[in-house]
Amino acid sequence: MTTPADKPVAITGCAAITACGDGLAPLERALADNASALRPCARFTGSPYQTNVVGAVPDEAWATLREGDPGHAGAPAFLLANHVIRRLRPRATGRVGLVLSTTKADIVALERGDTGNRHILPGQLAADLAAANDITGPVRCVSVACVSGLLAIQTGAELIRRGEADSVIVAGVDLLSHFVVAGFSALKSLDPEGCRPFDKDRIGLSVGEGAGAILLARGAGMTVAGWGSSNDANHLTGPSRDGSGLALAMQRALRRAGVAPGDVDYVHAHGTGTLYNDSMEALALRWVFGDRVPAFSSSKGLFGHTLGAAGVLETVLCVIAANDGLVPGTPRLRVPADDMPATLQIESRHGAKLRTIMKINAGFGGTNAALALRI
Amino acid sequence: MQALIEELKRKIVAAVNLQEVKPEEIKEDEPLFGAGLGLDSIDALELVVMLERDYGIVIQEQTVARAAFTSVRSLASFVSEKRKK
Amino acid sequence: MNRAAHIQFPTAEVPDGAWAARFSTSCPRFGRMDGLSRLALMAVESLGVEFENRDEVGVCLETRYGSLGADRQFLRTLSPSVFSYTLPSTAVGEICIRHKLRGPVLCLLTESGDGRQALEHGQAWLMSGEATSCLCLCADASGDHPAEAAALYLRESVKVIGSLRELCITLARPV
To answer: For chain B, which domains are there?
Structure first.
């Protein structure tokens, strides 16, 4: 099947499962209420880590997933990702591709020493998800730290642009695990009470789990007008990041979209709540927008930092926000830090017209990525 | 105190997996971070883990760590004051 | 001028012995990195490239086992410095830091690890103008197989789709 090659690549469907629950409706409500789904989690109570406050997919949602697919009850990464891919598959037409984004795949299988488990290797997880959903077009598995999701979306858009697929499901997934919580805890990067992005008293991030998927195809919907990525080439985990790398990724996305900085209505930031990331992001925003930084916010206080799923889930939030005429606030933010531009959104704001949105993420290893989305 | 200084030099090299410097080559008054030995923020975390494991000292605040880690000598003073092991 | 390199070790371990001298002054962290990062840096070093237009050099790494070696080490030690290496893209970060490359980046996990996708995506960057040159690599250092990496520095598309590994073995062969 061929579709007009001059129609831009658009997001024609979304699906999600997060700490807010299953589906888009709980996300929509949470965005409107500027709510937070970060809670103490029994899985980590009594552990030696900095905290047990995380963004966990609710137990009832997990139980429903396992009951619905008993054959994969012991394959949580597969269950989560398959859940969202399956939702979008019926609407995918022509030659269908899959791009999976994940940082640790089924890390819990590695934790329990199940070395033969196929889903420990992300490439195999992607292949199995494609097979389970009768996806016979190109399959890619992207793993680039916290920017995996946005790079997966870029990769999917590129596949359509080059004519290698007519539609692409881009899915991001990562699990809450002792591995990841212990790791960030060893780096003393967690906020024991739950993250406070861009706050003057922020001290760390909160880990979350979930899966998100978007369907890309040429057609009507929010268009993926431009994308860009870069590396800081500076320091691995970076206190010395000056924002220029993230600014470069943003400028590349804007240039590719043919959009001027002044046309951007809203930026959905990375905003993890760590001292360094959030300051770096403020610098990057000023670098790109000068003193006209658009309204911006972070949703890490909503369902946590979902790592490989973040870019996809946060793009889903942008789609919901645009559809609902809502500028998202920053859940758990109380008092903005002094170095924050004044357009930082604390509360959600209704009745807005969002035409051009930027979604940005930054990650370990100095990676940066940006998307320019237009309605 | 000198014995503790020499012990800490060995532990720093081990904790940070320093390949190109021997414990005896570290000068006790030279800066550990930035200039001098050139350790970075991740190395600092390894030292925090070492202090907790070997001396029972728990550091929660970044500012405490920064002051203690100025040099091997300042670290030795910090350890002899705070140690529980 | 495109350049190719292929390196291999007898086991899954990546020794730093003979290479340590080359990296010791210019890359003090080399000995403390995980096997995948060291292997990737060695492969790029073998190319002997003088990078220009560093803001426009893309880096695309393909791997089958990714950070599995560092993952296992982290489970044993819970060490903060090891945790940084439990992402395959950290190897890409190390390449970018060492050579000051600020172009587009990508890290792909595949079942074969043969670099076919890295070659394809790198060439796509050249054709779209997203990068003016790129490093395409495939590397594995954590599985049950000998540690192996292939690296290609592309300034012009070779218009080939296929195993990067095979391509580099052919191109890197002494004339």
So the answer is: 2-82 (1.10.1200.10)
CATH architecture of the region A9-218? 3-Layer(aba) Sandwich (3.40)
Report the C-alpha gap between B17 and C77 in whole angstroms: 13
Give chains near C: 3+ CB pairs under 8 A.
A, B
The Cα B51–Cα B30 span in angstroms is 20
| A178-195 b/e (C-beta count within 10 Å ≥ 16 → b) | bbbbbbbbbbbbbbeebb
Reported ipTM:
0.96
The distance of B18 to chain C (nearest Cα, Å) reads 7
User: C119 — contact with chain A (CB < 8 Å)?
Assistant: no
Instruction: Check CB contact under 8 Å for B41 and A186.
Output: no
Question: Looking at beta carbons, which residues of chain C come within 8 Å of A226?
Answer: none
- Number of CB atoms found within 10 A of residue A137's CB: 18
Range with the lowest mean pLDDT among A131-145, A232-246, C78-92, C120-134? A232-246
Closest of A272, A299, A351 to residue A36, by C-alpha: A299
List phi, psi (to 5°) of A62: -60, -45
B·C CB contacts under 8 A:
25
Fold of the CATH domain A222-374? Peroxisomal Thiolase; Chain A, domain 1 (3.40.47)
pLDDT value for A3: 47
Q: Which two tokens stand for residue A345?
A: 């959104």
Distance (Å) from the alpha carbon of B43 to chain A's nearest alpha carbon? 10
Three-state DSSP at C162 gives coil
CATH code, domain carrying C70: 3.40.47.10
Q: Dump pLDDT digits (tens) for A219-240.
A: 888 999 999 999 999 876 664 5
**Is A119 part of the annotated catalytic residue set?**
no
How many separate domains does chain C show? Answer: 1
Q: Hey, where are the domains in chain A?
A: 9-218, 222-374
Instruction: Give every residue of chain A whose pLDDT is below 70, as ranges.
Output: 1-5, 236-240
Dist CA B22 CA B1 (whole Å): 20
Of A187, A236, A239, the CB nearest to B45: A187
Residue of C27, C55, C109 for testing the chain A interface, max A β-carbons within 10 Å: C109
The per-residue pLDDT for A368 is 95
Catalytic residue chosen out of the listed positions A119, A141, A270, A318 = A270
pLDDT digits (tens, 9 = 90+) for A2-35: 445 678 999 999 999 999 999 999 999 999 999 9
Which residue on chain A is closest to C76 by alpha carbon?
Answer: A111
What pTM value is reported for the model?
Answer: 0.95
